[in-house]
Amino acid sequence: MSGISISGTDAANYTFNATATTTADITAKPAAATFTANNKVYDGNATASFLTRTIASKVNGDGLDFSASSLSFASKNVSTGKTVTASGIALTGTDKDNYALSSTTAANTADITARALTLSATGVNKTYDGTTAATVTLSDNRVPGDVFTRGYTSATFANKNVATTKTVSVSGISISGTDAANYTFNITATTTADITARLLHVGATGTNKIYDGTTAAAVMLSDDRVSGDVVSTSYTAASFADKNVGTAKAVSVSGTSIAGTDAANYSLANTSAATTANITRRDLTVTATGMNKVYDGATVVTVTLTDNRVAGDVFTDSYTAASFADKNVGTGKAVSVSGILIAGTDAANYNLTNTTAATTANVTRRPITVTADAGQTKVYGNADPLSFTYHITSGSLALGDTFSGALSRAAGENVGVYAIGQGTVALSSNYTLTYVGANFSITKATLTITADSKSRQYSDPNPTFTATYTGFKNGDTPPLNDLTGSPSLTTTANSASNVGTYTITAALGTLASGNYSLAFVNGTLTVTQEDARDTYTGPTFAATASATSGTVTLTLRATIQDITAVTGDTAYDAFAGDIRTATVKFVNRDSANALLDLGTRSNFGFNVKFNQSGTNLQGHVNVIVRHGGRVYQIKSTSITSLGVQPLPCTNAPCTAQFVAKASVQDITNPLLPISVEGNATIQMNMHDQGEPGSSDTIGFTVYDKNNALMFSSNWTGATTAEQLLAGGNVVVH
After folding, report:
1. What stretches of 423-544 adopt beta strand conformation (E)?
2. How far, CA to CA in Å, does 495 sit from each of 362, 456, 566, 571?
3. Residue 18 lies in a domain
4. Taking residues 401-425, what's their average pLDDT?
5. Is 138 helix (H, G, I), strand (E, B) or coil?
């Protein structure tokens, strides 16, 4: 700092220095940025550009300017006096540091003017529809991304007819939408398009018809032409799939074509068509012709049927009944036919107008031949058959008809042949009857000669053999018949033959008969053991050698006598027996070892009863058993139970079972009986099969006092099985 000076009242009083040095600040000068913006044509964005830039406080000559990071309109849309805002303002230039920017933003206004928009039309080809109306699509040169829609009020061809590259005039073009106000545009345009031929679909409606045996059909055509157009349609053929009656039957149409003023505007879509129609039944009348017949006992008749069908059709006429007024023979008889119907391939195509008809026919007599049956016989002494039989050898009887009367034969009852005549056999006047005769034979009756069975004891002579005759007829009895002579009755047994059974052979001998055929049945000769009595004659007591000895030796002796030699024996035999080969067997009969085993021959007798209430048992049982050379007697002491089935028993078969207490004795020597068991139980089971008793069965079982088995008439291992009686009869009632 220099040129320092002072002045004032007291200045003179001082001296001072004319220079000095110190410090101070130079502050930046405030600066405010302003601008003007350029107007623009709408371009779809809000960006703006500076027209001018000004800093009012700029020292003249300083290098100073500014820039902005963003300069934009408030929106992209067209408008006048639109605010333009600059932001991010920064000073530039060589002197920028001497200034302090008062704001980094600034604002001004500018205009966005409308953009010229060109709208173009592209014609859309169409199918002929009878109008000049056209359709176009619009395009434009909008700013990419702008949103608005285009439209038009009218687009038309010069005329309605089919052609290519036809002029289309478009009017009433407009735009609308978010960005539409930013544009100016044209409201008309011109383009071209084609009108192509319209597919014409020809349909057919079938016409119903009455069956005529052909497939030919008639149809009416229709189409989908534009209303008012002048077009005619036709076809060359229409037919059903088959000739038969039916509803909604398929009809095929071919050769369809079009013609007329507007036909050129159409392309025929189909040269054939399909539809349906009905073929209804044709009335059919059936007539009948009667067939003559031979009488058959029925009114049924056969007729032949004819009708008025379409020539060549295949079906059959039938009927359920055709009948005369009655079954009898006659000429020109009325015939009524009913249940007429038709069936077959073409039957369904007809409506049968009648199910009945009338005609006439004849019924003639029925020939028949009957022949008496050959081989008709009877056995001598039998009655004639209730009727002699015959059979039809030619022709036949009508159903329900029968012969009347009966055949007859020549008289006679002896064995021989007798003619069979027609007798009174006859038929009605509807028949012509022929009779053929035959013979009737009487054959011999069978007369059976049965040798009577006999029995004798060993060494006795054979008894006189006799026979029984069965089968005499007509009251014949010897000698009042034509049987003569006597039979032969022989056997191979003699007095020396052993015990057993021998055949008594019955044979013709001198027998002869004209009315009998002789049959022979053999008998049986039974040779039984010779009755004899044995008497023990040896010692009955013996002494041991000492008081301490337990054994003794003694000789046992017995005497055997033929019954003829035993005075007063109840089994006395008039014929002397041969006992030279008899043997004696001595058996220890200590009662502790006297249990009986299965018997081989038993005799018995019993009579047991109770009252109707099943109480008050009464009766007795006596059984003789022969076994092992010994004879035992089982005799009841009291009856303990009795059961009968059914009760009461009035008719065989019946069953009974009774139980009794009994004593058992060895009576081989009846003069010296030996007691075996004094408190035994006997159970007897029996079946009464009715007279004569040959089928009756019986079985009995004996138990000792400890209920151990002593005897069984036929032990199976678990029980006693009943056996047929060898003789006698069981009666249960």
Report:
1. 431-436, 438-443, 445-451, 454-457, 467-470, 488-490, 500-507, 516-521, 523-528, 532-536
2. 92, 9, 21, 19
3. no
4. 93
5. strand
- Separation between Cα atoms, residue 462 and residue 493, nearest integer Å: 8
247, 307: one domain? no
- Output the pLDDT for position 552: 61
Q: In which element (H, E) is residue 8 found?
A: none
Do residues 154 and 221 both lie within one domain?
no
pLDDT at 544 over 70: no
Residue 266 is assigned to a structural domain of this protein: yes
Mean pLDDT of 578-584: 66
Please, are residues 714 and 701 in contact by the beta-carbon 8 Å criterion? Answer: no
pLDDT greater than 60 at residue 203:
yes
Following DSSP, what letter does each residue of 559-628 receive, concatenated? EEEEGGGSTT-TT--SSPP--TT---------GGG------SEEEEEEEEE--TTS-S-EEEEEEEEEET
Cα of 242 vs its chain's centroid, Å? 40
Residues 188 and 135 in one domain: yes
613 and 703 together in one domain: yes
Residue 596 has pLDDT above 50, yes or no: no
Residue 322 CB burial class (10 angstroms; 0-12, 13-18, ≥19): buried
Query: Pick the residue with more confidence: 498 or 576?
Result: 498
List all residues 6 or more positions away from 636 whose beta carbon is below 8 Å from its beta carbon: 606, 619, 620, 621, 622, 660, 661, 662, 682
Burial class (CB in 10 A: 0-12, 13-18, 19+), 443: middle
Find the CATH number of the domain harbouring 475: 3.10.430
pLDDT confidence of 685, banded at 50, 70, 90? confident
Residue type, 356: T
Residues 616 and 717 occupy one common structural domain? yes
Q: How many domains does the chain have?
A: 8
User: Residue 593 — pLDDT band, cuts 50, 70, 90?
Assistant: very low
Residues 539, 552: Cα–Cα separation, whole Å: 12
Structure-token pair, residue 585: 């067997």
Range of the domain at 575: 530-583
- Residue 695 φ/ψ, nearest 5 degrees: -105, 0
Asked whether 243 and 309 are in contact (CB, 8 A), the reply is no
What is the distance between the alpha carbons of residues 518 and 470, in angstroms, rounded to a whole number?
A: 10
CA 190/CA 171 separation, integer angstroms: 9
Do 99 and 170 lie in one domain? The reply is: no
Q: Which residues pair with 216 in a beta bridge?
A: 239
CA distance 503 to 489: 10
Q: What pLDDT, in 10s, does the model give residues 150-189? A: 999 999 999 999 999 999 999 999 999 999 999 999 999 9
pLDDT for res 591: 35
Query: Which of 358, 353, 202, 376 is closest to 273 using CA atoms?
Result: 202
Whether residues 465 and 422 fall in one domain: no
Task: Tell me which residue has tokens 């067939």.
Answer: 291
Q: What is the spatial distance between Cα 214 and Cα 240, in angstroms, rounded to a whole number? A: 9
Are 631 and 679 in a shared domain? yes
Is 180 in a helix, a strand, or coil? helix
Asked if residue 244 is part of any domain, the answer here is: yes
* Final residue belonging to a domain, choices 113, 142, 164: 113
Q: 280, 298, 322 — which closes off a domain?
A: 280
CA distance 317 to 322: 13
Instruction: Identify whether 2 is part of a domain.
Output: no
Instruction: Please provide the size of the chain in residues.
Output: 733
C-alpha dist (Å) from residue 520 to 289, 511, 525: 74, 11, 16
Check whether 595 has a pLDDT greater than 90.
no
The pair of three-digit structure tokens given for residue 421, joined into one six-digit string: 């005549």
- Report residue 16 as tokens: 């001072």
Asked if 225 and 200 touch (Cβ cutoff 8 Å), the reply is yes
Q: What is the pLDDT of residues 313-347, one digit of tens each?
A: 999 999 999 999 999 999 999 999 999 999 999 99
